[in-house]
Amino acid sequence: MHHLPHQNKKALIIGSGIGGLSMAIILSKLGFGVTVIEKSRQPGGMLRSYIRRGIHCNVGLHYLGALDKGQLLRRLFDYLGITEKLPLTRMGVHGPVDRYYFTNAIDGPRQFDMPVGLDAYEAGLKETFPKEQSAIDGFMALLRQSAGQLDRLELLFRNQTPADLIDLTEPLWEILDRLGCSPGLKGVLSVPSVWIGIPPPLCPQFYHTMALASYLFSAWRLESNGAHLVNVLVQRLTDLGGRVLCGQAVQRIDVRGGDVTGLTLENGEQYDAQLVVGTAHPKVVVDLLGSNTIKPSYGRRITGLVNTDGMFAVNAVVPASIHKSLPYNVFSMKTDTGGVAHNVIYTQLRASGRPESLLLTLITRGHNELWRPWEKTCSGHRGDDYGAAKMALARGLIKKVEPFIGQLKGLEVIDTYTPLTIRDWVNSPDGSAYGVMRSDRQMLSASLLNRTAVKGLYLAGQSVMAPGILGTILGSLITTKFIVGSKRFEKEVQL
Q1: What whole-number distance in Å separates Cα of residue 383 and Cα of residue 134?
Q2: pLDDT, tens digit, 9 for 90 and up, residues 177-201
Q3: Taking the model in full, what pTM does it have?
Q4: Among 8, 21, 215, 293, which residue is least crowded by beta carbons within 10 Å?
Q5: Is 320 within 8 Å of 356 (Cβ atoms)?
Q6: C-alpha distances out from residue 418 to 128, 306, 371, 375, Å
Q7: Could you read off the pLDDT of 306-345 as tens digits, one per residue?
């Protein structure tokens, strides 16, 4: 493996989401001169909020886990140098972090409250499923073991054996079946895999643990918004000597003799560097390489990867004078006879930043089939029928959540978006919300995406490790380890 151990090397990063900005800060801390290239007019990708009626609407940032002092995401934020700039509110202090509602409870509860803390979670499970103590004991033992491995960052600082990796990639559903869990218990335990876009029967244990354990460690809301977090990251990068160029699309990745040499932008400008990191979807990065640059087998491997589904979201305002914000998130869903969750709707009702209004956010599956008539169009040019279809779906979702959060009087929808919106905004194939699906069925083909067939070209972003802020930053660190080598990484990256 070719490493770049010397300081003052130039690095170019494609994309300025959480993957691109965390990658840029890490490399800057290691002495690289970093330039981030972003095609949009503003940095941040799906991490960035957007404004409607003077209210920030978050897209990829709704709550955060493991941010208490000494916990994993807090250590990562501390390393990046951004913690002190983020106003945070702890969740789960006087109640749950998440409240699950099962609209057709099969062999299980109609409601389950997810608290903070592994012990509290175990107690809640045992109270709800008194006849399944043994199965819960088995699951919690595995969860505690895996959560400890995650917290110790063994995937970064320990050379794991093949047996370790096999344990991590075992599908959650096989584990729950082996433990003898009822469909009702399986339904409750498997909800975290839905957070990251993986159907529960296909979700490897490692990714389920990452999602669940991080919020059981502690859960937080950012008091500001996604744009603020992006600005903090960009300012930190700037303070380290890096820069972000917005409104600049990459035309191609330049390669000579099997080595990356830099980037050519669509405006004809060329930037030279021995290191390029693509944080967009792997397929998008590969498309920037010439057809003769990579082996056909590598191209087929990337283009054949199955992506997570898109998402449909609604943002609406309700009068603060007659509604109260919810200090927890609501997940309402149906389950089938096997316990698999379907039609999950994520609901958040919180302060909007304007005293007269609360912001209601609903997120559910993309309903891709509804938007096929407009799939060859671009944002802003889809017509009234598209708007009517979005509003009809939005109204239907609002009616579905009212039984759980109360009648929403004085509600006004201020924005909706579909997978087509995400596709156009961040160039995600098919509007995928979480990039490459890290299912058990494609663990092999999706493994080691950080490294490419071109020397000096690496991948980062949510597709290479796991989605979410935690998973994406961990992916940036793993890519960094490949770039600089294990010895330098372990010596200079203190987490």
Answers
A1: 56
A2: 999 999 999 999 999 998 889 999 9
A3: 0.94
A4: 8
A5: yes
A6: 36, 19, 8, 11
A7: 999 999 999 999 999 999 999 999 999 999 999 998 899 9
